[in-house]
Batch of 2 targets.
Target 1
Amino acid sequence: DAGVIQSPRHEVTEMGQEVTLRCKPISGHNSLFWYRQTMMRGLELLIYFNNNVPIDDSGMPEDRFSAKMPNASFSTLKIQPSEPRDSAVYFCASSLEVSLETQYFGPGTRLLVL
Amino acid sequence: AQTVTQSQPEMSVQEAETVTLSCTYDTSESDYYLFWYKQPPSRQMILVIRQEAYKQQNATENRFSVNFQKAAKSFSLKISDSQLGDAAMYFCAYRRSDYQLIWGAGTKLIIKP
């Protein structure tokens, strides 16, 4: 089975530009998580969805960040406008609703904002 | 609030030897899950092993096993017969009742050939 798919794998952009990160969870998984990883702050949960509904977005740093899950097989994380401090690796993870104990991670998107 | 502590920022081991990575956590919950994830230089997060708190038996996955001490809130990872491919950052994680994962700071494992 295909794992969690993220695109792009790498993104370099200039400050002020809009960035959209994409995620396709594992088929059949009903929960989806967006994480950010930096050297300074480690792994941070940004937001998670259950059955396409955002459950907890308290980790979203500020209004420049938004996430959507229009259907069970696709989610986006958007940063507008981007800033250099947003540079990080962004991970998407998914899990089965009935056994939420294990989250399976995608390969991550390495974002660099110049 | 739950916390996860990995007190070893870096560990090194000779190839084929055994190494143990430490993890302690703090919680008031009685039922929870604990995980070890591996992050190699490729940056992908890979599940290594998981442990249900209600199970007394320690989880094992091939060369990987845990020593779960619930009363002491300790969850160490033992890697036997270390291989070069085991070199990575290892993260201990605790799953809260609301399904969020609380992460340790990670331990960098170096394998010496």
Note: Chain A touches chain B through 21 residues (CB under 8 Å).
Target 2
Amino acid sequence: NAGVTQTPKFRILKIGQSMTLQCAQDMNHNYMYWYRQDPGMGLKLIYYSVGAGITDKGEVPNGYNVSRSTTEDFPLRLELAAPSQTSVYFCASSYLGTLGNEQFFGPGTRLTVL
Amino acid sequence: QKEVEQDPGPLSVPEGAIVSLNCTYSNSAFQYFMWYRQYSRKGPELLMYTYSSGNKEDGRFTAQVDKSSKYISLFIRDSQPSDSATYLCAMYTGTASKLTFGTGTRLQVTL
């Protein structure tokens, strides 16, 4: 199993450009998440999904959009990139069950907006 | 007040030392407690997972939960340079899908 994969690893965007961060998992997890991590700020939840076709906002959703058409994939769309979106983005997945919510993380995408 | 407080460090210890990492929380609904380890430029990976108060041991790592004080700890015995990483605590109520993370404590184990 590859686990959670993310592409690209690095990206530099100009202000106003758009891009999609890709995330895929092969563990048949029902829940998927997008976080951003800024230095000294911990992980902030952007969006999450409880299954294909169902998404919901997290703490910091402004400037982002998501979709989930399949169990495996959960892309994050940035429209009109701004310097405040410079961050490291992590995708995670979990199988929510009686054992709780163990989340598995991808390797991250490091995004710089100039 | 943040729901979860964690000292950001950095914490520097010599090899072989016992390390204590801590988080406090304010939401009494948290039932599940986790510790994630994050190496530089990598994604977090789950290290320990506990439910309810008490201790859980896994090799050199011990997770401790005190719900009455709303305080959790991670102890690392015989610390190694390979333990140098950022350690994040995370909590979950059991009735919602979202984890609440601490900001992380950066640990450096020196030779």
Note: Chain A has a mean pLDDT of 92.
